[in-house]
Amino acid sequence: MEIKLNIYNKKEIVKTYTTNSYDIQFGTVEDLINLIDLDKLKSDDDFELIKMVGIIVNDGFDIVKQLLKDMFEGLTDEELRCTKVSEIISALSEPIKFVIKRLYKGGNSKNE
What we know:
Layout (H helix, E strand, L loop, with lengths): L2 E7 L2 E8 L6 H8 L12 H14 L1 H11 L5 H4 L4 H21 L7
Antiparallel strand pairs: 1-2
Helix pairs in contact: 2-5
């Protein structure tokens, strides 16, 4: 799965970071767990999962910033300031949805 993050100068894309995969470290997972309420996840509904990603972005800004910098080697704080929030949420959706699903389902591969 390719994950992209564009850096802008006004409306022009000046740089694009890409990664083909990303495995979230346990410490980050621990930080994310503290931000979400797993009991609110009652299904595999992508809408609910994306809503959780929004909560994480909103309530865990420092965690998100570090996660993005871990995902995209060389990404700077200044470049993050020139990134669209919608693209940050999109970039984080797949890795965070994966973690949430694994936590919700107990990591049982039969449930994936």
